[in-house]
Every structure is written in structure tokens, then in C-alpha cells.
Amino acid sequence: xxxxxxxxxxxxxxxxxxxxxxxxxxxxxxxxxxxxxxxxxxxxxxxxxxxxxxxxxxxxxxxxxxxxxxxxxxxxxxxxxxxxxxxxxxxxxxxxx
Length: 97
Known about the structure:
The structure is a single chain. By secondary structure, the chain is of the alpha+beta class. The chain has two domains: about 5-60, SH3 type barrels; about 60-90, no CATH class. About 30% of the residues lie in helices and about 35% in strands. It contains three helices and five strands; from the N terminus they run E-E-E-E-E-H-H-H.
């Protein structure tokens, strides 16, 4: 299954000739994401990411509620695999607050 998962933009990156990119944190798992559809996103913003593309911005409360629900359903583990659990364990925090 491929989910559209909310994450927090931690850094934006400009690459010559490429679409705008960002590093997005999904509760400890950080991935490179294309911002072509939401070019105004800045560090601290939450975005919904599907197959490597940020497709929509959303508020922090909605992002956290979605992540809690995904975690309860076990969908984050399916999407991120062991890396999600390792990141949560290493940070000493639950994957979703």
C-alpha cells in the first residue's frame, strides 16, 4: 500500500534546474521530498507526501492526528518498515505524540 503521509519540512534545498526539494521528517524518518506542487512550503510547515511528492500543506494538529491514526492502524510500519521503529526507539520517544 502506498499512503499519503504527513511530515514536517525540516530543510528546503535548491538544486540547479530541478524542482524545489525538501528534507521532510516523518516522526524520525527523514526523506527527500519534491516540493513542485507546494513550492511555498518552508521549514516548520507540515505537508502530505505521496510517492516522494509533497501534494498539500496542512496544519500541525491535522498532521499529528493523521499520524496517530496511521500508527494505531499499523500503517506507518507498513509504509516505513523497521526504520520507523528504529527512529522512534533511538529518539527515546513514541513515534507519534
